[in-house]
Structures are given as C-alpha cells and as structure tokens.
Specification:
Belongs to the EPO/TPO family. By secondary structure, the chain is mostly helical. It is built from seven helices and two strands.
Length: about 170
C-alpha cells in the first residue's frame, strides 16, 4: 500500500544513508548491530549528564525481558505485535520525558529511532487486518530518564534482533 511504502521508505532513509532495502534491513546483520551500538551510545551519553534529574512524573516502560525458549515458540506475527506494543509504550515514555534539559538531544534521537522501528513494523503483517493499539504489554513505572535508554537498548538488543533473525530465515535464502 502507498502509505506503508512511504513509511518504510522514510524509515530506511532515516536509519541508513546507503542504498538500503527492506530485505537488507533484515538480511544484513550489520545493520541491527549498528542500531544496537547506537542504542548503547545514546544510553552512555545520557548517563554522562551531571545530576540527571528524576522525571517530574513516573513514566510507564515496557518490560522487555523474555525467555528465548518461549520466544521461539511464537509466530512471527505474535512477535511483531509484542514488539509493537513495547515500542508504543517506549515512544510514549520518550515523548513524555523530552522536557529534560540534559539528555534532550539523546531523547530526541531515541524517539526518532524507536518511532521509525514502530512505523516499519506496522508495515509487516502476516494476518488479516492491520495492527491496532490496545496492548497488554507487561510494564513498570520508572522515575529516571536513564531507564528509558536502558529499556530501548534491551529491546533492540533482544526482541528486535531476534525478530529480524527469525525473519531472515525466510526472507534471506
């Protein structure tokens, strides 16, 4: 569909300046490693802020830990929906925390990256019907900006990396 193609194109232009394709995003393991490195870098830079204040109100973050055994037993569509729920919560948390002076630039980058992954994953679908909000993602309340960066890094390093790995088995033969 044209809107989905437009979102995918904008994601690929934003995330990778070279000649990327949807298959390359999934099939080229170096890209996800690049995003993991960027997530670590954002987390490190945010942690360097002197006297990083607590958030003015608690933010709800997804619990992104998972059992690899359980993860492998899920369909790609179930995995996609679970990651979309996590990303939706994370994007909302980042948007609510952007009033921070120190770390604002890193929060802006994190928002762009997390939202780009969110938009991209909405274009993938194996079941009838588009993704609809209304998640029952496991979550926790946090008062520290650094928790947002940690959650994003864990999500990219965990579920998202394994999801792309699973997709690559079918798409990259």
């Amino acid at each position: 569909s044209p809107p989905g193609l437009l979102l995918l194109t904008s994601f690929l232009l934003h995330m990778e300046e070279s000649h990327a394709s949807p298959a390359r995003l999934v099939c080229d393991n170096r890209l996800i490693q690049k995003y993991i490195g960027e997530a670590k870098d954002m987390e490190k830079r945010a942690g360097q802020c002197q006297a990083l204040p607590a958030l003015s109100c608690p933010t709800v973050l997804p619990l992104v830990d998972f059992s690899l055994q359980q993860w492998k037993s899920k369909s790609n569509e179930t995995k996609r929906r679970e990651i979309l729920c996590d990303l939706a919560l994370l994007v909302g948390a980042v948007a609510g925390a952007q009033d921070q002076e120190c770390g604002a630039r890193q929060l802006s980058h994190l928002y762009q990256h997390a939202n780009s992954f969110f938009l991209l994953l909405q274009t993938f679908s194996w079941e009838a019907g588009p993704w609809e909000p209304g998640c029952s993602s496991r979550s926790m309340e946090q008062m520290h900006v650094t928790s947002i960066f940690l959650t994003y890094r864990q999500l990219v390093q965990g579920k998202l990396r394994f999801f792309f790995h699973d997709l690559a088995k079918d798409l990259c033969k």
